[in-house]
Amino acid sequence: MLGKPTILIAVASLFAATPAFAQSPAIQLDSDVELAQEILTKEGAQTQFVEPAKVVPGDKLRFTISYRNVGSDLVEDFVVTNPMPSAVMLAAEGAAEHEVSVDGGDSWGALADMMVTDAVSGKPRAAISADVTHVRWLLAKVQPGEVGQLQYYAIVR
Fold first, then answer.
1. In this structure, how many other beta carbons lie within 10 angstroms of the beta carbon of residue 121?
2. Residues 130, 119: Cα–Cα separation, whole Å
3. Diameter of the chain by CA atoms?
4. In the chain, N or C terminus with fewer CB closer than 10 Å?
């Protein structure tokens, strides 16, 4: 009996071309990706996040963008935009917490408010997490020396 083929994807090839970016040179960004693994402990099943070597479709990933204001001035209206790597889709869980784009970054909003054109019928339909092309965060103020992290979860396609 033949099983479903397993597709292994080298992690470096997934994310090399999709760094987060910001509009201020005073803000330093660093990106990281981790693979969610379920482990059994005495307390029950728990999720741990590990450095991925290879991933397969269906794997859950956690993307973290760390930021630091390396300048000596307050940065206001700080925007971080992260294009979704084409090999992943935004995980449905937590998707409502993010401002997203489903049209390559031309328009932004809550996923629940977004519409796309269905590829088969050509008619408008409600956008789903698989339609998301970008995630972004708006931070009103980032103080000198301030550090923080932004996260989202994605599923390997």
1. 8
2. 13
3. 65
4. N
Q: Hey, how many other C-beta atoms are within 10 angstroms of the C-beta on 128?
A: 15
Kind of pairing between the strands at 124-126 and 88-90: unpaired
Contact 117/123 with Cβ under 8 angstroms? yes
5-26 burial code (b ≥16 CB/10 A, e <16): eeeebebeebbeebebebebeb
Please spell the DSSP secondary structure of 27-65, one letter per residue. Answer: EEEEEEEEEEEEEEETTEEEEEEE--SEE-TT-EEEEEE
What Å distances lie between residue 82 and 3, 37, 49, 117, 130, CA to CA? 36, 24, 20, 23, 15
Q: pTM value? A: 0.81
70-88 tens-digit pLDDT: 999 999 999 999 999 999 9
Tokens encoding 28: 């330093």
Distance between CA atoms of residues 122 and 129, nearest Å: 19
Say how far apart CA 48 and CA 50 lie, in whole Å. 7
The rounded distance, in Å, linking the Cα atoms of 51 and 34 is 5
